[in-house]
């Protein structure tokens, strides 16, 4: 099993966490943009099988290695888990790619200087989405990411659904943007998010995705 990508991408982290949870052996190799029709990472190679996209890969891994299950059997729980995965991949990830490009990729990988003024504007945009009063593309008020997550994380459990699964894989991975962007969770305002983020970060599969 080969995962093409770099570990600091939360989308790559999703795949690594799923492989770790299922105890499948894998290696991480450099991004392979020619294997992805959108030039993105991750891409999974399993012999002759090539799968782009973290969600497609995780669903593939579930069928290929059914235990332990990461997707609920119950239809309502499955619907909720898949929405939370999509919320992470779309709602949480939005805007971060450019922040990481300016803050990390340019100086550390491309040998280019960070455009500090551009970075500050990009960071304001993600702060507004995560902690402010954001609106949808159509102008409707929507909950800030931290407010929505606070409403979804149970008071007394460190998994979103009764059992650890794809929702935690995705939401946990996308909480990883915070580190890349230099944003801390205010535990007084969002106590459940702060507790959940700490618990998920300590899980061995997530530690392996960072190592
Ligand atoms: N929907 C895709 C999103 C993947 C994605 O956006 N990956 C980013 C890295 S975080 C990427 O490859 N960006 C490079 C590019 O777009 O050229 C997935 O779930 O895998």
Structural description of this entry:
This protein has 211 residues and is an alpha+beta fold. The chain has 2 domains: 2-64, Glutaredoxin (3-Layer(aba) Sandwich); 75-210, Glutathione S-transferase Yfyf (Class Pi), Chain A, domain 2 (Up-down Bundle). Helix content is 54%, strand content 7%. The chain has 10 helices and 4 strands. It has a 4-stranded mixed β-sheet with strand order 2-1-3-4, covered by helices on one side. α1 links the parallel β1 (2-4) and β2. α1 (10-21) runs parallel beside α2. The chain is globular and about 45 Å long. The mean pLDDT is 96. The structure holds glutathione. The site of glutathione (GSH) has 11 residues, from α2. Glutathione binds at residues 9, 11, 39-42, 53-55, 89, 97.
Short description:
The chain is an alpha+beta fold and 211 residues long. It has helices at residues 10-21, 54-64, 75-92, 96-109, 116-131, 145-152, 166-175, 177-181, 191-202, 204-210, and strands at residues 2-4, 27-29, 43-46, 49-52. A four-stranded mixed beta sheet has the order 2-1-3-4, with helices on one face.
């Amino acid at each position: 099993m080969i995962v093409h990508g770099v570990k600091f991408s939360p989308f790559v982290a999703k795949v690594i966490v799923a492989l770790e949870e299922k105890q499948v052996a894998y290696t991480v190799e450099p991004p392979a943009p020619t294997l992805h029709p959108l030039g993105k990472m991750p891409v999974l190679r399993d012999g002759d099988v090539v799968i782009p996209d973290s969600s497609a890969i995780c669903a593939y891994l579930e069928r290929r290695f059914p235990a332990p299950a990461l997707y609920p059997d119950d239809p309502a729980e499955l619907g909720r888990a898949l929405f939370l995965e999509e919320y992470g991949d779309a709602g949480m990830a939005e805007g971060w790619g450019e922040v990481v490009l300016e803050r990390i990729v340019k100086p550390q990988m491309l040998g280019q200087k960070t455009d500090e003024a551009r970075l500050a504007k990009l960071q304001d945009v993600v702060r507004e989405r995560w902690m402010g009063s954001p609106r949808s593309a159509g102008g409707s008020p929507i909950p800030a990411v931290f407010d929505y997550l606070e409403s979804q994380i149970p008071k007394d459990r460190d998994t979103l659904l009764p059992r650890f699964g794809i929702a935690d894989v995705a939401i946990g991975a996308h909480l990883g943007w915070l580190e890349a962007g230099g944003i801390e969770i205010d535990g007084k305002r969002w106590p459940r998010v702060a507790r959940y983020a700490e618990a998920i970060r300590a899980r061995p599969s997530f530690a392996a995705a960072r190592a």
